[in-house]
Amino acid sequence: MAVTLGGLFFLLLLLYTMQFAKKKYGQHFLVNMNLVEQIAGYIIDAAGQYTKNVLEIGPGRGVLTKYLTQHDINLKVVEIDEDMVEVLLSESIVKPEQIIKANILKVNLREIFDGEPFILAGNFPYNISSQIVIQMLYQYDLIPAMVGMFQREMADRVLETEGTKSYSKLSVLTQAKYTGKRLIKISPGSFNPPPKVHSAVIRLDRKKVIKPIFKEKLFKTVVGLAFSQRRKMMKNTLKSLIFEGELLQDEMLTRRPEQMTIEDFGILTNKILLHKNES
Questions:
Q1: How many Å apart are CA 159 and CA 162, to the nearest integer?
Q2: Which of 109, 104, 173 is nearest to 139 (CA)?
Q3: Which end of the chain is more exposed for a tag (fewer CB within 10 A), N or C?
Q4: Cα 202 to Cα 275: distance, rounded to the nearest angstrom
């Protein structure tokens, strides 16, 4: 059977990446170069719109990184795996000063670009992807946009709106600050080793005006309690916050959390804040 040059390259890439993938880091290397180039293009587009600073999480062997370094951006990468760091350096994909060898969840994001804003990007490890989003939300003033690859189910949790099964606490907290869109759907066969799930690349852009105006800590508490028992009406899940007064009769409290828009949650938070101040 004749093997094309492209087919041979793809086979060699599969064999090469297979020896590096580590389950403990949730590593699945994207080997479809057409998709890699597309993702790089989306990241560069975001950088062109907001800032040249780009932080790539989990570059692995640097397949995406190689495309990014071809553009006029200020790139830094966070990689926890020492073997991957060695690959990045030995193949001169990035310079030593561009690498932060660390767990992204333990990195002080404000120190990476000396407090300047940056684009968050990468093929995020699926086992910590929700934590990466939460970390982004805590530092949203630093991150005007994110272009990232997630397990498709996780991407849905971030982007879905009220009235859907995937609508969640993460949906509300993320969309209170960012608008999002799906960019690419990716099948398991585009990776080595192939994951057991489908993937998706999404983009988030920080809202120019973040509404509603609310006390953020209380907002997170309200949303978290509401979705902790999503089948129950909120008058039951928010008992610890509302235990007396006229607010108990509010129509919103007869709804389940998936029936509430982000704006509704903000309005309810403000009502609860007023209720607490009057108590």
A1: 10
A2: 109
A3: N
A4: 38
What's the DSSP call for residue 255? S
Query: Which residue ranges make up each domain of the chain?
Result: 5-206, 216-278
Do 245 and 275 meet the contact criterion of CB atoms below 8 Å apart? yes
Token pair, residue 226, equals 């509401």
The per-residue pLDDT for 82 is 94
Contact call for residues 191 and 31 (beta carbons, < 8 A): yes
Q: Which of these CATH numbers, 3.10.20.600, 3.40.50.150, 2.40.50.140, 3.40.50.720, describes 5-206? A: 3.40.50.150
Q: Count of CB atoms within 10 A of residue 60's CB?
A: 26
Compute the residue count for the chain: 279
What is the pairing mode between strands 119-123 and 178-186? Answer: unpaired
Query: How many angstroms separate the CA atoms of 57 and 101, rounded?
Result: 11
Contact 126, 114 (CB under 8 A): no
Residues 112-170: tens digit of each pLDDT: 999 999 999 999 998 999 999 999 999 999 999 999 999 999 999 999 999 999 999 99
On the CB side of 195, how many CA atoms lie within 13 Å of its CA? 24
In CATH, the architecture of 216-278 is Orthogonal Bundle (1.10)
Query: Poorest-confidence range of 87-101, 171-185, 207-221?
Result: 207-221
pLDDT of amino acid 18 = 47
Q: At which residue do the structure tokens 């993937």 appear?
A: 199
Q: Which helix H or strand E contains 53, and what residues bound it?
A: strand 53-57
